[in-house]
């Protein structure tokens, strides 16, 4: 169904490419929860069309990093820009930015009282103010893209976890985001459902969607990532193309981590 895009000729280092092509630009980000420092001096760029996969042990700050990008968390210091603009703390600009950075969570968070179609069409109607027929047409198109068109009239409770997550991805796409942030999108799924969700994400990557994906799925990281970011203890310890990261990790803690998970 999808064609894998060819890998980029040049790989952009974590902090290079601070130009118009950087969809996400993070500089010197620090994040505290009270007296606990969760993120330390994070610098990272995600270029237009790039897929960056974040891996690392539990508690290393991966979710918090994602959540800081669209301000589900406040930041303590540093700068985060999306599409060339600093992420504001609140207000209409923040809503605009959230629309540009769609988020897919581990728990799908679909509205159980709405049908699949209504879940996907909701934000286009309420936030983007599309006329209902147009929003529904868009929702059907997106459901087609994630292989869920035939389930449009069901309620989330009638679907498997993998199907619900595919609907959640369609819902995120319905805002026509510039970048998709995915925080462990397959961690809550039974093993047999993981691949169908990864296939959808791989397809989006092949179509050129910019993505920041936190995952423990090493096969996906290896195949779909343009760059892999390894985090531990709130720090980025390595950024590398998947080929290098998985065959010859430069960082000792990354090597230890891979020895445990591969
Ligand atoms: P990961 O996603 O890599 O497992 P998290 O970003 O969820 O890591 O958490 C990183 C660290 O920050 C952990 O030690 C976690 O306990 C802590 N943390 C996360 N959210 C909060 C919060 N709301 N309040 C206090 N500590 C938090
Ligand atoms: Mg997490």
TrEMBL record:
State where the protein is found.
Cell membrane
Question: Matching PROSITE patterns, A to Z?
Answer: ABC_TRANSPORTER_1 (PS00211), ABC_TRANSPORTER_2 (PS50893)
Looking at the keywords, is ATP-binding present? yes
The main place the protein resides is membrane
* Segments forming a coiled coil: none
Looking up Pfam families in the UniProt record yields:
ABC_tran
What topology does the record note for this protein and the membrane?
A: Peripheral membrane protein
User: What domain of life?
Assistant: Bacteria
Q: What class of enzyme is it?
A: hydrolase
Q: Which residues form the ABC transporter domain?
A: 24-258
This protein's record includes keyword Methyltransferase: no
Q: Which UniProt keywords apply?
A: Amino-acid transport, ATP-binding, Cell membrane, Hydrolase, Membrane, Nucleotide-binding, Transport
- EC annotation? 3.6.3.-
Q: Name one GO molecular function term.
A: hydrolase activity
Record family assignment: Belongs to the ABC transporter superfamily.
Name of the protein described by the UniProt record? Glutamate transport system ATP-binding protein
């Amino acid at each position: 169904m999808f064609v894998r895009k060819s890998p980029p000729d040049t790989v952009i280092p974590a902090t290079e490419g601070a130009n118009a092509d950087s969809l996400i630009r993070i500089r010197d980000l620090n994040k505290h929860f009270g007296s606990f420092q969760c993120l330390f001096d994070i610098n990272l760029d995600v270029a237009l069309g790039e897929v960056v996969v974040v891996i690392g042990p539990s508690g290393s700050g991966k979710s918090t990093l994602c959540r800081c990008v669209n301000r589900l968390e406040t930041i303590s210091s540093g700068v985060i820009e999306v599409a060339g603009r600093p992420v504001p703390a609140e207000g209409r600009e923040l809503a605009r930015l959230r629309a540009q950075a769609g988020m897919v969570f581990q728990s799908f968070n679909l509205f159980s009282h709405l049908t699949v179609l209504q879940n996907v069409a909701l934000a286009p109607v309420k936030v983007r103010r599309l006329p209902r027929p147009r929003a529904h047409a868009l929702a059907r198109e997106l459901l087609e893209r994630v292989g869920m068109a035939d389930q449009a009239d069901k309620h989330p409770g009638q679907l498997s976890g993998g199907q619900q997550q595919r609907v959640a991805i369609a819902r995120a796409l319905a805002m026509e985001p510039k970048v998709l942030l995915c925080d462990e999108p397959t961690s809550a799924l039974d093993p047999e459902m993981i691949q169908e969700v990864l296939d959808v994400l791989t397809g989006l990557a092949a179509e050129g969607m910019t993505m920041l994906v936190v995952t423990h799925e090493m096969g996906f990281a290896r195949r779909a990532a343009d760059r892999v970011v390894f985090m531990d203890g709130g720090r980025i310890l390595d950024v590398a193309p998947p080929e290098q990261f998985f065959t010859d990790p430069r960082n000792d803690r990354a090597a230890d981590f891979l020895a445990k998970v591969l």
